[in-house]
Amino acid sequence: MTHTPIQRRRPTTLKDIASEIGMSVSTVSRALADNPAISQDTRDTVREAAQRLRYRPNNQAASLRKQRTNIIGVAIPDIENPFFATLASAIQQSARAKGFSILLGNTEENPELLAKSIEMFANQRVDGMIVVPHDEAQEIFEDAVDEGIPIVAVDRRLSIPTVPSVVSDPKPGFAAAMDALLQNPNATIGFLAGPQDTSTGLERFKVMQQLAHDRGVELHIEHGGYNQRDGYAGTVAMIEAGVNAIIGGDAMLTMGAIQALCERNITVGRDCAVVGFDELPMFLYHNPPLSTIDQQVSLMGKEAFELLEEMLSGQHVPASKVLPTIMHDRGSTTLA
């Protein structure tokens, strides 16, 4: 006689409750924890749904989370991008000074690879994560929050209220760059914009549009990914359109711009003015030294680790830390 195997009911998760009542996972989590920031009506709604769906907290997972490994996961989109390499190094230095090791995930701006990195970190029972997120990988972060893993977003924001972020404010640097270029009466300004499916790419694009509007300036914009290839192609298009003053949207886009100009024997600081993004040593060795917009990347990494450390010790942390960008005006902003 054969027996039909008993099908075990999958445990209800915070995500199930959130989907049932149309709220975010973070709101559900805070409501069940009786967070006073959540209204009583919302808490009652969440608890009723949790009871109806027979939700049981994963106490075993919570217990495991309390056992420290002194390892943190760090996910960055491109290890070949000097900005992200410097960011990871700054996080590692801060972590090492406090007795932590890091696991590094290079996600190549690929949401699936980012999700695999987050899963790998969770399986290795890291104490927490510092990540450069991607808008298309929101769900995997909600799962990690559901599991009680502390997360800090760096360079880009996540739309999860319980995940704090350390980011830069591009406006001060871009404003100073545009004003420096406009000192040239014949300047026609172009902007190499980053990907619009990242918070940084979208924010920098909107800031540049607003700055140009406020100054009554027509702005030529070329969109691309954060890579040298798209910076090169965008610069070629700008040259053909008569642009003679370029602002890069990130380090790799800036490197592509320099390559395109050099190949065409267009002299920076004479035939074309250029302001790069990110303060990289290689930009200082260019002739003339490149004017740059500095995100204070080392400080960004240090602040991100300190936020995570505060979360691990149970302290209340701010929703975000915003570092002002600084424009370093050198010899590349002039036109003959």
UniProtKB/TrEMBL annotation:
GO terms for molecular function: DNA-binding transcription factor activity; transcription cis-regulatory region binding. InterPro entries: HTH_LacI, Lambda_DNA-bd_dom_sf, Peripla_BP/Lac1_sug-bd_dom, Peripla_BP_I. Pfam families: LacI (PF00356), Peripla_BP_1 (PF00532). This is HTH-type transcriptional regulator DegA. It comes from Corynebacterium pelargi. The gene is degA.
